[in-house]
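BUG: 3D viewer hangs when loading the predicted structure for this chain

Environment: internal workstation, default settings.
Expected: structure renders.
Actual: progress bar stalls at 90%.

Input used:
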Amino acid sequence: MTIPVWVNGELLDPAQATVSVFDHGLMVGDGVFETIKIVHGEAFALTRHLDRLALSAQRMDLPEPDLGSIEDGVGKCLAAAPDWPLGRIRITYTSGPGPLGSDRGDQGTTSIVIVDEQKPFPGTANVTVVPWPRNENGALAGVKSTSYGDNAKALAHAKARGGGEAIFGNLAGNLCEGTGSNIFIVRDGRLLTPTLDSGCLAGVTRALVLQWCGGEETDVPLSALYTAEEAFLTSTTRDIQPIRLVDETELPVAPGPITAKAMRIFAERAAADLNP
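Structure tokens produced before the viewer hung:
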């Protein structure tokens, strides 16, 4: 079955869908995106994701995206997709075609919606701490930008060493985030996650875990990850994934009691409200 994609208001066969080779999303990574979970044909937390798309665009000084049109595109793509147990929506929004440089063009933005099946993540995660810190003071700190070259390099580095996710510290030496995830640790019985000032993305799942399960936002030394009582990743498509191994250090238990409780609460609350 060929699932159509939505490009600038048109539903198209993927083989016929095109974007200009001059599009700055391709040329210089000048765009933003969102990944949204599909549960049995319905989007989860769509409003939160669209709000974050608009915020990322604002922080990159991109024109305001037409969220109503994009939401309509999401609906059309979902209507044409199979009833997967788990799937993902990818929304990409760029500054559109531009010159061969960093200057933006004036031909209008590009909006794309793609849906696909999502395979479940493993029950536990092995993570690799990478040697390249996030710049918590950078222009793109906390922005879900299409400029993902550092993430691609970091994830390849982690996978070459047996990790399923790469973990970044920041310039201050504190724990920050993964390439596509936020991170929580349990220390002295307390559930902790890095502050947004650490440079991490304001993850939708991260926010829901804090809202539903509690926890404290605080600066956490990167070294604390190796001695954590428990730790877990959060992201749109993995929900809560316990961490078993940090580099060569095995954590005491995965999932531990605080992680297991968070997993149970999150599953119950998410099932009860698909647009929290």
